[in-house]
Write a structure and sequence with these properties.
Layout: H1 23-35, E1 42-49, E2 52-58, E3 61-84, E4 88-103, E5 106-108, E6 113-115, E7 120-137, E8 140-152, E9 157-172, E10 176-186, E11 194-203, E12 210-215, E13 218-224, E14 229-247, E15 252-273, E16 276-294, E17 304-308, E18 311-320
Length: 323
């Protein structure tokens, strides 16, 4: 649930609160907050994942096999406008995640023994400041964004990170919006330090369905369902991270877990009134990669790597968005 989440690729902190009379900032704010609940003024989510088996390697050698019986996450996010003009604004963001793992017996491969691992709890905090500027390039709207992040766990502040992006609006009409750009992660531990951005949203003629494609983050088909609801079907790329303390014969100190997940399933959002939006998600999660590195190291220099079976998931949330 890091600020640099791939789920927020296009423009992580663009909010309608910062939009003025200019149509591009205003429309951009509406698009971003409609696609990503965590960019709204306030958002709370609970994520439950099903049991899954996994295998872990330490320094390239098989270390253990185990099963996670219960795994859940609780998240809170807030985004507050700090300063705004017609084409420039600054936003402050706060994030908190509480993540819990409950294990079955763990099988240690080198010693060929089983042992019990207690429930693991992790707290993750992050605060960010983001600056966004709207301009033109090649006579087309372009949006520049830079963000700085400080994160922590329950023990101490950990690291300072950053990102920078530029997004060019290539086409926008009543049915189709196309943008292209790039995003750079100013963080050596990022799994993807540089990411090209391409988005394509198209409402099919004489159809309630809309195609929502953001490379490489999502491919969804969306439609209105009931008077105040929206249904989405498809696949989304998600990233997770948190810090952990290790004290073993081989590993001692603070380490960071980075994980990429591919989630396929359904999302339903319903406008509850009074600026409240309820969200439900469900489907299947496939973990692409899970790596643990020393704090601040490149993910290619990982000390632990896990392979995990697919698992079901569901997510419920509520957002407050007065704009």
């Amino acid at each position: 649930m890091k600020i640099r989440l791939l789920i927020l690729l296009p423009l992580i902190t663009i909010l309608p609160a910062a939009a003025q009379n200019d149509s591009i900032p205003k429309e951009t704010g509406k698009v971003i907050t409609s696609k990503f609940p965590t960019t709204r003024v306030f958002d709370v989510q609970y994520n439950q994942l099903g049991p899954a088996d996994y295998t872990t390697k330490a320094f390239g050698n098989e270390k253990e096999k185990a099963r996670v019986n219960n795994h859940y996450r609780f998240r809170v996010s807030a985004n507050i406008p700090v300063y705004k003009t017609n084409r420039f604004f600054i936003t402050g963001s706060l994030r908190y995640k509480y993540e819990v793992f409950e294990f079955d017996n763990v099988y240690d491969i080198p010693s060929q023994t089983n042992y019990n691992r207690p429930t693991q709890e992790f707290h993750y905090f992050a605060g960010a400041v983001s600056a966004t500027y709207f301009s033109t390039l090649f006579k087309k709207p372009v949006i520049y964004n830079v963000s700085g992040t400080v994160d922590a766990n329950q023990y101490a502040f950990q690291r300072v990170k950053g990102l920078a992006s530029a997004t060019l609006v290539l086409k926008k009409n009543d049915r189709t919006t196309i943008t292209a750009g790039a995003l750079a992660m100013l963080d050596p531990s990022s799994i993807l330090p540089f990411v090209p951005i391409f988005t394509y949203e198209h409402n099919f003629k004489n159809s309630p369905w809309t195609l929502d494609f953001i490379m490489p983050q999502r491919l969804l088909l969306k439609r209105k369902l009931l008077e105040k609801g929206q249904l989405s079907v498809g696949t989304e790329l998600n990233s997770e991270n948190f810090y952990l303390r290790l004290n073993t014969g081989l590993l001692n100190g603070t380490y960071e877990l980075n994980q990429l997940e591919l989630r396929s399933g359904l999302t339903y959002e319903y406008w509850l009134g009074k600026n409240l939006i309820g969200t439900f998600k469900g489907g299947l999660t496939n973990v692409i990669t899970t790596r643990i590195t020393e704090r601040g190291e490149k993910t290619s220099k990982y000390v632990l790597e896990s392979k995990q079976d697919p698992q079901w998931y569901f997510n419920i949330g509520i957002s407050y968005n007065p704009f």
